[in-house]
# Entry
Amino acid sequence: MLDKWIQLEDEGYSQEDAEWDEFVAAHPQGSVLQTTSWARLKNRFGWTSHRVWLRRDGKIVAGAQILFRSIAFRLAKFAYIPHGPLVDWQDDEQVEVLLNQIDLTTYERRAGILKMEPLVWQDDLLAETWRSICERHDLKTDVDKLQPPSTMMIDLRPSSDEIMAAMKQKTRYNVRLSARKGVTVRQGSAADIPAFIRMMHVTGQRDGFGVRAPEYYRDAYELFKETNQVELFMAEFEERPLAGVMAFKNGPTAYNLFSASNN
# Structure
């Protein structure tokens, strides 16, 4: 089993990037937050990124994309692995080797804090099993989380009628009512990003959450569009935007990372 690390820069999409993204897309814990495009996005907004991986028979079998950022007036450095590392947590040897490489990389980058938030589903590992794994590898679990601790997944393989039937009655009524009233949904483009950003600010003010700089949403769309991993959907009434969703794709899964609506 071989290990390697590489520093990521905001440059062209390389063969190593493509290989890494293929690994992330196929891994059962893979996430859009571990893709090359996500690292390139964060690199534009105050972070640097490094990649560590393990190979077996020439193929990547485990790895992590690590983000670094200076904190506390640049007196300390914070390392963060969103939805990672990607590893077989029940393979102690693989976990041990990968964690050692992560530890070495964070030490070389002089990071004093490392936070990992692997995308481990409760259906895949029982809570007792996960606690035992963390204890064996000296990982702390009683810490604050940056990513949402829970999420909702919708299986899109059934027909639209079957998906609608699984919704609450009030939700089905509202969906059908909007169609009867003339609300349409279309696939957007870069030209719709300004309208989407305006709706993000309306949503943030209305619902009381922070909104990122306009460049963040614009760059996210631009970078992920290069690898065909993002689509923008706009709901409109008489050509006026009502709501929008920026959905990102990794493997067979799409992620609703940014969504907004007008008042």
